[in-house]
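Morning!

As promised:
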Amino acid sequence: MRSLLQLMMIIGLIGSILITEGYAERRRNKQRRRTTTTEVAYEKDMNILGDEELNDEAAASSSEENDSVLRMDPCMDKHCGAGKICKTNGAGNAGCVCIDNCNEESDPRRKVCTNHNVTFGSDCEVYQARCFCDSGDSRCRSPEFQHVHIEYYGECRQMPSCKEEDLIDFPRRMRDWLFNIMRDLADRHELPSHYLKMQREAETNMTLRWTNSAIWKWCDLDGHPHDRTVSRHELFPIRAPLMALEHCIAPFLNNCDADNDHKITLKEWGKCLQLDEDDLDDKCDELAEAANAQ
Ligand SMILES: *[C@@H]1O[C@H](CO)[C@@H](O)[C@H](O)[C@H]1NC(C)=O
Ligand SMILES: *[C@@H]1O[C@H](CO)[C@@H](O)[C@H](O)[C@H]1NC(C)=O
Ligand SMILES: *[C@@H]1O[C@H](CO)[C@@H](O)[C@H](O)[C@H]1NC(C)=O
């Protein structure tokens, strides 16, 4: 039983590293892109989880295209959210419309389970379904699809319920897991340089082992908007991939938001990881500045 749990943690670790890294990459692309567009794509609620992240690669590569191409095709520099594509109208103006067809996915791992416990062939199909309903398209299946979002990756299945005793042990496992991801990223030279010092401290000092990795993850999650709280939306990169492996992740993360304002402060984060508040410093900005100064 114990080794099975460990195995699951390792699978979860690898899976989530892949996914969080994918996100980080897209986020970087997005930051580049943001400088060239005026579009503000922030969502007001968590139903649009992870949305903007998904179509970024195409948008980022297009910004590197030749300027004259840009002038010819107004869609070149236009970013459309997931499940949408850019089309030009007769007057040569670019606009985002729902994508007509998502790529056929044969890999079952590309399937996703939604908040309605319905399996979709791919994340694209989820965003497309929502787009149809948002834009009053006749292809909207039913009004409830306006709020459809990805609950976890893979087909919908029977999730074991999270038992009280599993939840009790969860903060420890989560701390361990965060430390291990941080170490793994450092080993692969993929940890941003301004976190390396924290990582090295974490290797040598047991107190800093947990606190530094907790701070790192919190800073990392607090990306968009960067407002010193982690919204439910911003939890997407750890929540969705872990859901399938760790049935306690959802109740655990819900408990982290102790005052239920849909935002997790560093204080709340530390508390739910059972860390001493005094050991936690909000040094995200300090770290980012140090990185910029280099
Ligand atoms: C961009 O395209 C124009 C016209 O097609 C060409 O003359 C120019 O050399 C291109 N510039 C670059 C950097 O490729
Ligand atoms: C979700 O769907 C799966 C597969 O159809 C089913 O086994 C499971 O019980 C459902 N879960 C809930 C919460 O309804
Ligand atoms: C570990 O780090 C804490 C916090 O910076 C510090 O107070 C403590 O002395 C360190 N312990 C060791 C053994 O270096």
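The CA atoms of residues 271 and 277 lie 7 Å apart.

Hope this helps with the figure draft.
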